[in-house]
Design a protein that fits this description.
single chain; alpha+beta; about 50% helix
Length: about 200
């Protein structure tokens, strides 16, 4: 079944909802937004990154109300990213965005694209970041030995850049749809998320 305009809009709306969360993280990094407490700022950044990851994970189900509800119901209270991704992959094996680079335009006017090979948020990155952010935002066990330190491997700005690199220009297949969508995170003319039907 091909994707309708409503399907595309539902996916795009999820990605639009993700953007302000990345902006909050950027503002915290730049110190233009702060609680005055570095630990609190870090927790807020982790919360926003985790919410952004949830939008990415669930976006391909957004066009199908029943599937979306089923996924949320089945994953309520699940904090481990690997189990979340496994469940989503069972529902839609193509749920994760594939970042693209433009290879060139053909004489007939069509465009050729190739998958991006590095610098973006991979599924392994997703799992790592989601789980670390979950650790950061949940109450710390007061009997756990050692200082409360969450090692994210990269700073917040780098994680935001990798998420944006994943989404900047990518393709996706919505659940139960036959065609691919090529998606701009910030379309150069529309200045918003935009999705277009594509042939594999």
């Amino acid at each position: 079944m091909p994707s309708s305009d409503a399907d595309k809009s539902a996916y795009c709306a999820c990605l639009e909802a993700l953007k302000p969360r990345l902006q909050v993280v950027r503002a915290l990094v730049a110190r233009s937004l702060t609680t005055g407490n570095e630990s609190f700022d870090g927790e807020i950044a982790c919360l926003q990154l985790r919410k952004a990851l949830e939008f990415i994970a669930f976006a391909t189900l957004a066009a199908n109300r029943d599937r979306y509800a089923e996924a949320h119901r089945g994953l309520t209270g699940e904090w481990k990213a690997s189990r979340i991704l496994d469940r989503l992959e069972q529902m839609n094996r193509d749920f994760y965005p594939v970042p693209l680079v433009v290879q060139g335009r053909q004489p007939d006017g069509t465009w050729n694209f190739a998958p991006l090979t590095d610098g973006y948020l991979t599924k392994d990155d997703f799992t790592f970041l989601y789980d670390r952010c979950s650790d950061a935002i949940h109450t710390w066990n007061p009997f756990r030995p050692g200082p409360r330190v969450i090692d994210l491997n990269r700073n917040f700005a780098e994680w935001v850049a990798r998420i944006e690199r994943l989404l900047d220009f990518h393709y996706i297949r919505l659940v139960d749809q036959s065609e691919l969508l090529v998606v701009y995170f910030n379309h150069p003319t529309l200045k918003s998320v935009a999705a277009f039907s594509a042939t594999p």
